[in-house]
Amino acid sequence: MVKCRKATVSDVDRIISKIQSGSFSLDLLPLDPLQAQNLDEEEMAKFVESEYSPSLSKAVDDGRLLVSEESGGLTGYSLSHSKGEGRWVISALDVDTGLHKAGIGSGLAEKTLEHLRDKGGRMAEVSPAAGVHKFWEKMGFRPMKKGKRLERRL
Predict the structure, then answer these.
(1) Could you give the CA distance from residue 154 to residue 150 in angstroms, rounded to a whole number?
(2) In CATH, which superfamily holds the domain spanning 3-153?
(3) Long-range CB contacts (< 8 A, 24+ apart) of 70-79?
(4) Model pTM?
(5) Quick one: which H or E segment has residue 62?
(6) 76 close to 68: Cβ distance less than 8 angstroms
């Protein structure tokens, strides 16, 4: 069973550290893929510190950032935001690369969906990174009418 909880301010530093060490994927950062390709390692680190870290801190304040842990170690995180009228977007769900295929992602996704339901959510949507459509489809998400996004009822 995956242990999940609302993130605290200290978790933000732990998440950023894991992103910078490569334990969490850079594919989930809110960057246009072309923009990301043009950033060297130093510029990417600057983006993570100056832009992504503050957005995670705001999500802590709003209760939109969840973390999963095992034996006190951070194993994953999810970030979501409301589009209003009961519709939520899971903008990031990431698991330590050394722990893939251990059920942590599925457990974290379930806890995230439960959390969004508790916040009054009725629908959730995701924009899956390349290669993870099947993961979200197993979680009950289906293609939306437009674009590459997936959605499911909560």
Answers:
(1) 13
(2) Gcn5-related N-acetyltransferase (GNAT) (3.40.630.30)
(3) 70/2, 70/3, 70/104, 74/11, 74/14, 74/15, 74/18, 75/2, 75/99, 75/104, 76/104, 76/105, 76/108, 77/7, 77/11, 77/15, 77/24, 77/108, 78/108, 78/109, 78/111, 78/112, 79/55
(4) 0.87
(5) helix 53-62
(6) yes
What helix, strand, coil percent values describe the chain, rounded to 5?
A: 45, 25, 30
- Per domain, the residue ranges of the chain are 3-153
Question: How many whole angstroms separate alpha carbon 18 and alpha carbon 97?
Answer: 10
Distance of CA 133 to the CA centre of its chain: 15
Which tens digits make up the pLDDT trace of 95-127?
Answer: 998 888 899 999 999 999 999 999 999 999 998
Q: Which two tokens stand for residue 32?
A: 């246009």
